[in-house]
Amino acid sequence: MRANRREFFMASTAAAAALAMPLPLARRAFAQDAMPADGGQAAAAYRYKSGDIVVTAATEGVNLRKLEDGFVTNASLEEVKAALGEAFLSPDMLAIPFTPVVIQSGDDLILLDTGFADNGPPTAGMLRANLASVGIAPEDITKVLISHFHGDHIQGIRNKAGELVYPNAEILVPEPEWAFWMDDAKMAAAPEGARGGFEAVRRVFGPNAADIVRFGWDEEVLPGIQSVDAHGHTPGHTAFIVGSGDERVMMLADTTNHPALFVRNPDWAAVFDMDADAARQTRHRLLDMAAAERVQVAGYHFPFPATGHIVKDGERYRFHPAMWMPLLDAG
Questions:
Q1: Which residues of the chain have pLDDT under 70?
Q2: What is the pLDDT of residue 331?
């Protein structure tokens, strides 16, 4: 009993000390005990519904990119900094978020894009921990659905050791994207600096290429999930309409990068857009659709929880974040 009495005494002493403090200091003492020790954020996952389908957004983290001339290929650095300043963002260091989502449709748990796992920057790799906070383990994922083959969307399929992160999941990819990146002739013809992307695709998909399911555009890929041609960012870049009945969410993937730049300035081209003209046309088409139909959107690089609505503003657009709701069926 000595140990228990000692622990009780120490806890009582700590509580008494806190109560003896002025109230703001006492609150701060207890709050500091509850904060993550490494200074990181608490778990970040957010759920919302689209008809009968439940969507769970879980942050994978961010990439901190020093803003330099050329990030927007057809606007000056001064114009880009001004756009960030208008949105109350740093004009020097751009934080680009990554937000995969899990779509619960019937008995399936479908992960849409995967982030990096342990293959990315130190400010990323948080997806599995954030999904665990809402009770979703990697083994629970039944499908992995990919929008396109850039590394921040596919590297999380395998860890650095080459093991599948979601061992029970069937993997589904856009046929036009597969045709481009798995073409050996295109890889051989690519500039030296671009071959790494082809090699990364082969590292991820090569070991189980025969098991990969490929789908086209304008198909019901899975129940409640329709594929949409969104090419330009990459040759097979795909958006998705998710939902049932009158409630739908348009998963924009990388139709725009950060909304403060590319929703507000839809004619700007990000350095990541492989066909800038096609990406621009796709951006206008999908943002026009979202605005006209008042459909909710989700963007992979939008600020967490990365969902809201698009409003047409002349030749530009505005992004309005969705209201955060404490209950899944609130409102």
A1: 1-38, 330-331
A2: 54
The pLDDT of residue 35 = 52
Residues forming CATH 3.60.15.10 domain(s) in the chain: 46-321
Domain 46-321 has CATH 3.90.1150.10: no
Return d(Cα 138, Cα 128) in angstroms, integer: 7
**In the prediction, which pLDDT does 329 show?**
76
pLDDT value, residue 46: 97
Please tell me whether the overall predicted TM-score, pTM, comes out greater than 0.90 for this model. Answer: no
